[in-house]
Amino acid sequence: MPGKGMLSLVGAGPGDPDLITVKGLRVIKDADLILYDALVNKQLLDSNPAAEKHDVGKRKGQHTYSQTEINKLIVYNVEKGKHVVRLKGGDVSVFARAAEEIEYASFFGIQTQVVPGISSYSGIAAQHQIPLTRRCEHESIWVTTGHTCKGQISEDIKHAAKSSATIVILMGMTKIKDIQTELLKYKSEDYPVAIVQNGTLPNEKHHITNLGNLVQDVLKHNLQSPALIIVGYAVVDNVCKLVSTKSIPQLA
Q1: C-alpha to C-alpha distance for 22 and 100, rounded to whole angstroms
Q2: Catalytic member of 6, 16, 32, 37
Q3: Catalytic residue among 32, 171, 175, 237
């Protein structure tokens, strides 16, 4: 008779395997089955060689499993007494469909725990010393997807463009021209933009540009998905700028 199974949703962080939480790694090591997404660093899977593993990741035009199939796979294995770990890139609560899986599991009375992770938007920005907020200057963040579930540019990008917030766009590279067009309705051509592809990984590529040159620079530098787009003066308000433009305080 199998034991009582459970579901754990674990955030794997932005890419670098060292950026997973201690609790997240402990839960992975306890798994019987790991269902992992496309952006999860495969090194994390090596921490539990005994666990069964399935790639259920979704990339543009490439879905190994539909969301319905993933939901059913979770329930089927938990009901067999397995501890199923649903391993997701970044944080499970940010554009990761966690709500759909939790709701489906709860319908079957499945015990579920959520282990947060470092989101790609905050982790990648921190690695590049981009302060997404700065007191008295840029005091809020607008995090949005580049496109809706219907494949259209997100309406939130227009609303974000009207604000003074730092704008962070995930999954936006396929709509980069539309994003540029929308932002230029409310921002100047020299408004700063950073693009980071494969953030925190050894094959990372990054480039700082402005809205006027955004699309041509994406093509010139062959920047592709997965990439994070950060828009705002926070992009140029990093440590290098501070050291070069502001007086350095003297130690007593």
Answers
A1: 25
A2: 37
A3: 171
Catalytic residue among 23, 58, 205, 217: 58
* Residue written as token pair 């952006």: 39
Q: Which amino acid is it at 67? A: Q
Q: Is 37 a catalytic residue?
A: yes
Alpha-carbon distance of 102 to 79, in angstroms, equals 15
Q: Name which of 204, 164, 161, 208 is nearest 182 in CA terms.
A: 161
In 85-226, where does DSSP find H-type helix?
98-107, 120-127, 155-161, 176-183, 214-220
Say whether pLDDT at 239 is over 50: no
Task: State what percent of residues in the chain have pLDDT above 70.
Answer: 91
Is residue 235 exposed (0-12), middle (13-18) or buried (19+ Cβ within 10 Å)? Answer: buried
pTM of the model: 0.89
Determine whether 171 is an active site residue. yes
Span 230-246, mean pLDDT? Answer: 67
- The mean pLDDT of the chain is 91
